[in-house]
Structures are given as C-alpha cells and as structure tokens.
Task: structure prediction
Amino acid sequence: MTSTLVKATVSPPSTGLAERARRSRRRARLGAVLFVFPALLLLGALVVYPVLFSVGRSFFDASGTRFVGADNYTEMLRDPATLKAVRNTVIWVVVAPALLTGLGLVLAVLVEKVRWATAFKLLLFMPMAVSFLAAGIIFRLAYDEDPSKGVLNAAVVSVHDAFKHTSAYPTARARDGHGLTANPDGSYRTSGRVSPGTSVDFGMVGIAPADIPGDARPAYPAAHRTAAAGEVTGVVYLDFTPGGGGKQGEVDRKEDGLPGTRVEAVDADGRTTASATTAADGSYRFTGLKPGTYAVELPASNFAQPYKGVSWLGPALVTPAIIGAYLWIWTGFAMVLIGAGLAALPRDALEAARMDGANEWQIFRRITVPLLAPVLTVVFVTLVINVMKVFDLVYIIAPGPVQEDATVLATQMWLVSFGGGNNQGLGSALGVLLLLLVIPAMAFNVRRFRRSQR
Result:
C-alpha cells in the first residue's frame, strides 16, 4: 500500500519534466528553422532555382519554346569551339592548381626562415585584394606586344638587345634607278660588277634625319676620294638634302654618311671575299682584292626590323599567359593556407630528424610534405574547383582575335548564351556540364572536411 502511494506521488512530476523537455526541444527546433529560413530562402532563390531552371532550359531550343531533348548536349560535343574550351579547361585544371600548390608550399617553407615573414606574407597576399577585372586589365597592359607599353616585352627586348646587335636603319631602302638591285632577302647589290680601283656609292632613303646617329659626318669629302689599285671604296649616305635641293643619286655637300653599315664584296662564285663597316662619314674600303669583278652588297642585316619581343597574347601563348596572371593572384592564398598547416606541425618530429643527421631537403621531402598532405590536398581541390569557374581573366586578357583560342567552359557558356550566340539552350547545357564537372571535387572536399572534424 505504501509503495503504491509512493509511485503515485513520484510519477506525475517525472512525466511533467519530460513533457516540458519535449516542448523545449520543439521550440528550439522551431527557432532554428525560423532563424535559418531566410538563408534557405535566399539559397533556394539564388542557387537551387537557377540550377533547376538551367537543367530544364538545356532541353529546349534557342527560343525556349520547342523541346529538343538531348540535342543541345549532342551539339555541344560536336562543336569545335566547345571542344577547344574543354581542352583549355583541362589544361587549367592540370597546370594551375599543381603550380599554385607547389609555389605555396615552397614559399610557406621559405617564409618561415625570413626575418620579415609577416611583411613578406602581406606582400604576396595583396593581389587577393585586387578584383579579377582589375588584375585582367593590369596583365592585358603588361602583356602588350609594344615594348613601349608592355613591361614584359620591354624587359625581353632589353635583354635581347644587350646580347645581339640590332639594325640602326630598319626603314632604309635604296633609291630606285641608281644602279642598285633589291634582293628577295632584303639586301641590296650593285646591278653590275665592279673591278678593283673603282668607287661605289650607295644612296639610301626612307630614314628620318632625326634617326641618323649623332656621330654621323658629311659624306661629300669621302665620296670624292680616288680608289687605289686593288681597292674598292665608296660611301653609304642618306640621299636627301635637308631644306631641299641637291641631286638624286649624287653625294651633295649637306648629305650625311650612314655610319655602322656593313658592306660586303661578293666574287663571281657568290662568296663574300671582303667586308667592312662604314665610318662616321659613311665611307668603306676593301683592300687587297684579287683581280676580277665583284658585286658590292649591303646585307639584309643592315635593315632588319628591331626585335619586338614575344607575342604573349598570340594563339600559342595566350592560355599560359592567362594562367600566369592567375598564379599572381592566388599564390598568396595557397601560401597562407599551407603556412597555417605548417605552423601546426609537431616540431619534435622535425628536431628529432635533425638530431638523426637529416639535412633540410630530406626533412622537407620525407617529413614536412607527408605531414602536410591533408592540407595540400584541400588546397589543391579548392583550387581545382576555382579554376573550373575562371571567367574574368580569360574574357579580359585574351584579345578578340584569340578569344576562341583561350576560351574555357565558363567563357564559352557566356559567349554562346549572351555574347552573340543568343542560344540559351546550348548555354544551359554548357552550364550543366560545368556543374557536373565541379560536383565531384566539391563532394571530395566536403568529405575530407567532415572526416577532419571527426
């Protein structure tokens, strides 16, 4: 009787507490749903609905009124521009993340040994603050083929000119009808053959007076010297009298010589038997010539166009050039993430390896890299997802004529849909293809993240 009374007395409070706990949990769940609902609504409006709409739109024609089934996907796989976009996307996925991860790893290890490590990290991370639009404009200018505008070609041309002589008279040409013949290779040769003891003058035009070297002297005195026996002499001069006057084909008193011009004597067999470089007054002299006849020639090297650098944005280099711009932006990101993982490494393992006699390269290769493998994988996969969506740099840096050579899936999707193609059906199919390519990398990253949380 007493036990029954105790049970009756104790049981109701226990039931009340459980009920209050259930009501509290329901209120908490309701509060969580209400708190998350705006974000879910926004996610659905900006992500879920566009994805579902694009999938449905990919089965309709360009006008969006006629159902065409999988025709857009079939056309996509047959289109040469789309196949080129897929090829370029594969190049991006293979090259850019690997280079960025490697650079980030090397820089993260090196920065640890730099005194001003924080300033160095800040300097490398600063490009992340620049928008892709601004970065594209910066590199479009940097890659300009004109050395006076493009900083890269200015550096390349400077290095080239330091080791290889360039022509001082790229625009020069011989005056027509005065005994000189233009050869297919750009050189000039006397129309007839000359014997030792004669003089041959070369009157050139097409050179602005301002382009004549400052040490040039009047050619008139040298032109009136008599050639000795066994010699061929003459002058190479600008056949133009400042202020007008003078006679074409003759050396006038006010006409300057062209110093630094190479002149050659060619025998009957086509061999160069003598060569000379003109003096300040444009004069040259061949001595010790054997009896016979010779053709006097100005080689094409005198008129070679100056080296203008590398066509960075040409069809062959445009994709590597854009990848270079991408590396400039994202190297700091990879370095900071890998540096954070490097800071968390157990230092006792590194010190133990040093005490065992391992050098820094062995420690880096056999301890640091294996321990950083999870971080490197996350960085690599994150960058793979990012490069699959690259659009801004490709669209801005690549000039119009080579846009198709640099196109990737994101730019091709935009061009087909809005950039002149006006075929949203095919563009939606390209968007679905891009989504399918990104999903495996995203799933892999999420799985790794959950595994690390456990």
Remarks:
- The beta strands are 173-174, 180-182, 188-190, 198-199, 202-205, 232-238, 262-266, 272-277, 283-286, 295-298.
- The chain has 15 helices and ten strands.
